[in-house]
Amino acid sequence: MSVDHYENFPVASVLCPPALRPAVTAIYWFARTADDIADEGDATPEQRLADLDAYREDLRSVARGHAPTPRWEGVFVPLAAMFRRHHLPLPLLEALLSAFEQDTHQRRYPDRAAVLDYCKRSANPVGRLLLHLYGVRDLESLTQSDAICTALQLINFWQDLSVDLPRDRLYVPLLDCAEVGVGVPDLMRQRDTGATRALVEKEVCWARELMLSGAPLATRLPGRTGWELRLVVQGGLRILDKIEAMEFEVLRRRPKIGIADAPALLWRAMVM
């Protein structure tokens, strides 16, 4: 199974320890469904927020050991079993919901601090939930996991500029736009210029630095877990390489990972 948000990166793959696959899958469907509530269809922002409030109540209900409402049984019945089996940290799941709520009304981010605050809730909880399942609790691992997850989120933003801009969604910090002389109206019109390419290059460097700072975690985690994380890290870096090979012209084209990339990803994972 692959994640729609980060379709380059495996979830519950063959490398995931089999005993943990049901928990990883349950967490994925919890996040996938919440994101669809926040982002898909033609509901008003007010209706989306109301639905996310109801979704949160079902989450809290199953966390307390109670039955969910019938509306999202397919999500919360499996998740309830994982709460019992693995004692999932409720605040991490609630943090994801707060990020999805933010998506219903915020379309611009003034600076990198604002983007990082979003990533802290939209991406980092996923890594911390996985470390919880693996029994990893030390601060260094948590910090490196946050770096990897934030980098993955940023990579997805830069990879998806051609998709997000027509939807009036811009995650590039406005301060970064100003620093390289890119006007937001031109960016939203997807005008490819030397300045827009310099902007994308700046953001790619930011994401790469974060990914490399977290990458040592993949070499410390044992067995299948470590190998899966190696592939996740290399998948993210591969997308950045593709953006660079496109000379940072991603305002109208979306780079993807395909089967042809598999040998390079496996080799890079092996030599980390």
Automatic annotation (TrEMBL):
SUPFAM superfamilies listed in its UniProt record: Terpenoid synthases
Domain of life: Bacteria
Pfam families: SQS_PSY
Signal peptide limits: none
GO MF annotation list: geranylgeranyl diphosphate synthase activity
NCBIfam families: HpnC
Protein name per UniProt: Squalene synthase HpnC
Organism in which the protein naturally occurs: Sphaerotilus montanus
